[in-house]
Specification:
0% strand; 6 helices; single chain; elongated; mainly alpha
C-alpha cells in the first residue's frame, strides 16, 4: 500500500448497510442504537484488516461517523414501505392514550397532536427524518468506531526470534 491509508468508504458502507437495514425494519428498530454501534465496530474491524498500521481512535471515530451516516440513509430508505404500518400503530396508540386522559385536563395542543391522520409517504417528513437520523447515527457510529478501534486497532507484536544458545564461556565448568 506504499504507506497509504486504506479507504474508509468500503468498510463504512458495509457496516452502515448492515446497521441501517436492521434499524429500518419495524421489529428490530427497538435496538437501533445497538445496531449502529455494532455496525461501526464491524466497520472498524474491516478497516483494521486492510490497514498496514494499527488503527488510532481517530481512525475509528471517522469510519464510525461515516458508518452512521450510511446507516441513516439505509434506514430511512428501508423504512419507507413500513411507514403506513407504523403510523397506523401510532394512531391506535394515541387513540388508546386519549381514553385515559380526560378532555378537560389535556394541554391545549394535545388534541391536534393526538388526532393525527395516517397518510402515505411525505418528502418533507422523509428529509427531516434523514437529517435527524444522520446526526444521531453519526454520533453513535463515532462511539462504535472508537470502541472498534480499541478492540481491533492494536496488532499483536511479532514474536521475537528465540535467543540462540550461547557457547560456554572459557573457564566455566559445564
Amino acid at each position: 500500500m506504499n504507506g497509504q491509508k486504506p479507504s474508509l468508504i468500503t468498510p463504512a458502507l458495509i457496516g452502515g448497510a448492515a446497521a441501517g437495514v436492521l434499524s429500518g425494519l419495524p421489529f428490530f428498530q427497538c435496538l437501533c442504537c445497538l445496531w449502529i454501534i455494532g455496525g461501526a465496530v464491524l466497520a472498524s474491524y474491516l478497516l483494521s484488516r486492510e490497514a498496514p498500521n494499527p488503527l488510532t481512535p481517530g481512525d475509528g471515530a471517522l469510519v464510525g461517523a461515516f458508518t452512521g451516516v450510511f446507516a441513516a440513509a439505509a434506514s430511512a430508505i428501508i423504512s419507507i414501505p413500513f411507514a403506513r404500518i407504523q403510523l397506523a400503530f401510532l394512531k391506535k396508540f394515541f387513540d388508546r392514550f386519549q381514553e385515559y386522559i380526560p378532555a378537560a385536563s389535556r394541554p391545549e395542543g394535545l388534541d391536534r397532536f393526538l388526532n393525527i391522520e395516517v397518510r402515505g409517504f411525505s418528502l418533507p417528513a422523509f428529509l427531516f427524518n434523514l437529517v435527524v437520523l444522520s446526526l444521531v447515527f453519526a454520533a453513535l457510529g463515532t462511539l462504535g468506531g472508537i470502541i472498534g478501534a480499541s478492540l481491533f486497532g492494536r496488532r499483536a507484536a511479532a514474536p521475537s526470534a528465540p535467543n540462540p544458545p550461547q557457547p560456554p564461556q572459557p573457564g566455566s565448568l559445564s
